[in-house]
Amino acid sequence: MKKRPWKNSLTAIMLGAMIVQGGTAVWAADAAPTAPVSSPSVNYGLTSDIRAAVKSVAVTPTATGSQLAVTVRLYNGGVTQNRVPEHELRVQTSSGVSYTLKPSGTNKESLQPKEIGELVYMTAVDTKEIGTIDQLSFVNVDVYSYPKVETTLLAMPTTSVWYGATGSAALQSLSNVAWGQSFSIPGVNSGLTYTAIEASMQNTTAGRVAVVTVLASNPGTGRETVPAFRMDAQSETKNYEGKRAEVEPVTLEAGEQKYIHFAIPVENGVTLSDLVVLSTDNYVPKGGTDAATLATGKLAIVWPKEQGTSTAVPYTIGQPIAFDALTKVVDKSTQVSLMELHLHENPGEGYKTAVAKFKLTNTSTTPIALPAFASELVSTQGLTYQGARQANVTQMMNPGLSYVVSYSYIVPQSETGTSFSLKLLDSVAASPYTTTIAALQTDLQQEDTDSTISLYPFDLKFNDVTVNSVTTPQLTYTYKVRLDLGIEQKENVVVDNNFSKLRFEIVDNAGRVIGSKDAAFNGDNKLISGVQTLDASNITTDQFSYPFTVNVYETIETANGTAKRLLKVIK
C-alpha cells in the first residue's frame, strides 16, 4: 500500500510529540558529554488521521523455540476520536516467512484527538530458525467473505530488531554508548536523556548485586515521567537481568535531574563486559490478568573498568565536604567536615580500628534533621571496609551549632596503608543498595607523640597518670586512677550523652587487664581540667604483678558493638 504523505498541519505536532530529542545532561559537578541524538521514529499513515511508528521488535530465544514481540506507537492527528481499524499484525522475514502475532488485551481500540497509544503484540513459536525480520504489516482480514479477503492496511520496514541472546551476538544490532556519555532511548516516546555515572558490586543477604546509578535529565519545557526500561548486564557467556530499584514512578519537571538505580543480581566472581538498555512493555493475554514483560534491547554500554566510578577528590581534613548536588540525604544548610581520621592497633585484638569523626554544622536559622549517611574506607589496593556509625546520635540540629558523629572501621592487621579514599553513601530508597554522594582522598592522621591528644572537639593533655590499688577486708581490690588533665574544648560544638568516652584499662606486667574505668566528657562526673581520681572496676584476685600500664582508649558505641581507638599507653 502506498505511504500517505505528511500533512503540513500535522508535521509540527508530530515532531513535538514523537521525535526523541537529545540533550546535554549536567552532572552534580561536571558537564557530561553531549548525548547522541536518536533518529526520529519514521511515521506512516495507517488511516487518514492515525499515523504509526515502530517502537520495538524483538526475537527472543525460549526453551522450546522463539518469542516474537512487537510494540507499535499510534498517534491520532485528527480533531475527533478515531477507531483503530480492525487488523492482524504480522511480521515477515527476509526469506518470505510470515508470523501473525496476538494483540495484548490492554491494546486501545480507539484514540482521542492528539492522543498517543502503544499497541503490544506477542507470539511464541516452536522453532529457533526465525531468520531476519525485515517488515511488519497491519492486515485487515474479512472472514465473512469466501474465500476470505486480506487487505494490507500498512507495511513498515523494521530497521532495528533485537535478537535477544548472550555475549557479543546480542549486541551486534545495538548502538554503543561510551560510559559517562548521555543518551536517549531509541524508539521511546520521551525527551529525557540519561547518563550512567556509577557502577559498583555490592553484597546483600540475597547475594552479590551490580548496582548502576543513572542520572535522568529533562532538557525539555514540560514535565515528563521516566518511561519503562531496565538495564541488564552481560558477561561473555551469560545475561543477568536487572530491575529498577525505584518502585514509584519518577517524574521530572522541566530542567530537573534525578537519579534512578538498577540492581542486577550476578554470580560471585563473574566478570561483566557490557550493560544493555532495554525498553519494556507489558503484554496481557486476552481474557487473562497476568502481565508478561517484553524487553527489547536498545543500546549497549561497556561495563566500566573501575568499580564504584566516583573519583575521589583530594581533601584536606577540616574543610567542608562538597556533596553531590542532587543528594537528598544532606540538607543544603548542613555543612559537613571530616575532623579526624586515625588507624591504630588494638592491644589484645586481632585487628586494627580506623575512626573517622565528622563535624556537622547547621548554617540555617531553624532546626534541621541530622543527616544519616553511610560510609566506606577504601585502601589504595581497592579493599573496602564498611563503616559502623555511632549507635546514638542527636536527631535534630539547632541553628549555629555543630554536632559530632563518629564512624569506625575494622581492618586487618596486614593493612599498612597511610592514604585512603573515604566514600560517603546514601541508601537507595526502599532497598539495601547505596550510591556515592561524596568521595574523598586523604591521608591518615598520625597519632600525637607529645602529651597533647586531639579528640575533637577536645584537646587533651595528660600531665600525670598514676595507679594505686586498695585492698578491702573482703579481699576485693579497687584501683584508683589519679589523673592530672588539661582539657580545651572548641566553641559551639555540642557534646552530649552520645559523645564518645575515655576508657582507662589497667594492665599488669603479664599483660592481663585487671581493671577498667569509663569516663565521660559531660554529666555530673565528667572529666575536667586539673587533678581527679577515678575508681576502676573491682576484681577478686590477687594474681597480678607490678608494674601497671594504663591503656587510654576513646570508645564509641556502634551498631556493631564498642569501637576502641587507642590514644595513649602510660607506663
How would you explain this protein's 3D organization?
Residues 1-38 have low confidence and may be disordered. Strand 24 (334-345) and strand 25 form a beta hairpin. This protein is mostly beta strands and 571 residues long. It is built from 1 helix and 42 strands. It has 3 domains: 8-302, no CATH class; 313-443, Immunoglobulin-like; 452-570, Sandwich (Immunoglobulin-like), CATH 2.60.40. 2% of the residues lie in helices and 50% in strands. It starts with 7 loop residues before the first helix and ends with a strand. The strands form 10 sheets. Strands 1, 2, 3, 5, 6, 8, 9, 10 and 11 form a 9-stranded mixed β-sheet that branches. It has a 5-stranded mixed β-sheet with strand order 12-22-21-16-17, with no helix packed on it. A 5-stranded mixed β-sheet has the order 23-33-32-27-28, with no helix packed on it.
Total number of β-strand segments? 42
Computed over alpha carbons, the radius of gyration is 33 Å
Distance between the termini: 98 Å
* Helix content class: under 10%
| Structural class computed from helices and strand pairing | mainly beta
Relative strand content: over 45%
Task: Give the overall pLDDT as a whole number.
Answer: 86
Q: What's the number of helices?
A: 1
Number of domains: 3
Report the major sheet.
Answer: 9 strands, mixed
Q: Catalogue the unreliable spans.
A: 1-38
> What would you call the shape?
elongated
